[in-house]
Design a protein that fits this description.
The complex is a heterodimer. By secondary structure, chain A is mostly helical. Chain A is built from 20 helices and no strands. The radius of gyration of chain A is 22 Å and the shape is globular. By secondary structure, chain B is an alpha/beta fold. Classes of the chains: A mainly alpha, B alpha/beta.
Chain lengths: ~475, ~190
Amino acid sequence: MIELATLCSGCVLLPWLTGSLLLFAVLAIGFLVSRALFSAPGWLEYAAFSFPLGTGLTTFVLFLMSWAGIRLTWVTLTLEVVLLLAFGILLSRSLTIDRQGGSTGQRLALGGLLLPFLLGLGILAAYLSIARSHSTYDVTGGWAVKGYGIALEGTIFAAREWGLWSLAYPLNIPLLHTAFMLVGAESIPLSKLVPTLYSFSLLFIVLRYWQGQGLAAPLAALGILVLATNPLIFLHSTMGFANLPFSCYLIGAILLGLEGMKKEDRRLLLAAGVILGIGTWTRAEGIGYSLVILLTFLLLGLIEGGRQRAGSVLWIVSPVALFGLTWMTFGWRAVGDSHLGVAMRGVLPQMMDGQLNLTQLYLVPRLFLERAVHIENWGLFVPIVLGLGTVGIVGYLIHQRPLDWGPLLFAGAMSAVPVGLFYVRSFTRIEDFRELLIRSFDRAFLPGYYMLVIAAFVIFWQGWSFALPAGADPEERRPPGGSG
Amino acid sequence: MAPWRRYLSKISMPDFSRAGAIEGYDRSRLSRAVFWGAIGLLVLAVLAQAYVTYDQFAGPMLADARALGAEPSWRRAGVMSQWLQRDRTEYIGFLRAEIPENATVVVPSEGYGGIFRFTELMQYYLFPRAVIRCPPDVLEACLQRAVERDPAGLHIMVVEEFPPVAAEQLGLVASRYSDRWGVYKPIND
């Protein structure tokens, strides 16, 4: 097999060209699938979901191809991408039902308000991300080198020997590195655009949700800037850990699911399922998070609309099962042998012996809060969430509004899961548990951070706003979440 | 209508006038005050966060990026990594120059070599070379066997006391980068 890079060894621009082509192809796949999944997609849907959908589907099919024995080379990668593009075109043609309504003037204006700031931040983050290359330990020794090993040997089974964790972690992110390596773009390395693009996709996912909740444009725009300028979020946009892409999938699925349940829109629920399914294909704890998210949707359905609404969760379940079970069939043994798997098996016997590790359980939130109040760690996360949340609840009480449970429940669930995961790990990481918390908890808490900020802005808005576009039906003046 | 007014008219804004005066207080005024108060505080919060992000992270990273310029990606990764930094990265540059890409490299065993003993890290920095590590309890036998298996391609990293066997004893020749670091390589390399 001819190496792509050797076709023109002196061409400085070749890696940029091939890498950009790959990136555009992946974005086009995501764009076409978004077109098929959403009934009325506009620029916000495309900006939010093209990248996470495109990457997840491309790597998942690469994984299936390799599992089936097809050697991964730049030729098979090109064939795969072309086939996925063709499939995307067919899918979007046959499933598209409505092309209206996505890009209203208000949506464009909201984007216009933010675009200069986001563009500036995005360019800065992308430049720094590429410039610092794979300079973080887990990224170097885990995600990147695993992908390089797969590219070198042409098979996903190379992940056993290359890099950390053997096959315990799903291969979404490593296979992205593989793809960029196969097209010769890792001398730049163009794979370092991945964290930045996930980070900014997530901002558009949140913006889309807030826009759907009717948040005033200045409030929504400032909310997005609160997220984008947070030091930790900015840092992760340049680092390459899988936690930020994972958050992108979890938050995307939650927000689409909330909207889908409220509107009883099966397409949105299915889209939520596909996004959540790709989440299980991104980090080892994805299956556990998915179960918690599905149970929270079930609970929310029961609170808000009884058994019938709860039943709509089934639309989310099926794609999650497809991705999750496929991955688990392949990686079950390695997941069981991973540090989390070992910890999980060790917890019950120790608890039965009366060892509850309550001090460690208390230590998790305490150490986190100690760090979270410092602006150089988590920005102004604590005062913003507490301030907006409290003022919003006061508004709810004064104006006697019905509470929108969705964002609140998920903010609680997404904050509780990492605490639970680290509590489990406290049973096996006895000596260096404190160091483990300081080193790793913050990035594990990213989904909780996003959901808390999202919920705080929604609660504030619903508590105090009387906002609807002029001329709207006064009967509909209640906030979208307020109708129960 | 002026373009900026037309633009602003498209942005959704709260319609506080609909709040009215109910239950003895002017909800409209209170809501407006709360909303714009929050907007003002959020603007300050964004500015503060942006300052900290630039001052603590983006600014120093930009300075590093400018200093490194168009260096290869593995070198930028090494210099900016808290584990390797400049001097260890230069040593890796030496290894990359000394060791052919199709060779196998033995990294220091457990208990030797500091950061260089981590196989996964060396797999990245020495890619695409194969990287192996010997168990410390059978170190000499393992090194001997590795040389026998691949006499023309095997290289051993020399990091302080590792390996505790002389190059001649293994049929290799030593090439030093510094008094602490170097590499054992085949005689005809």
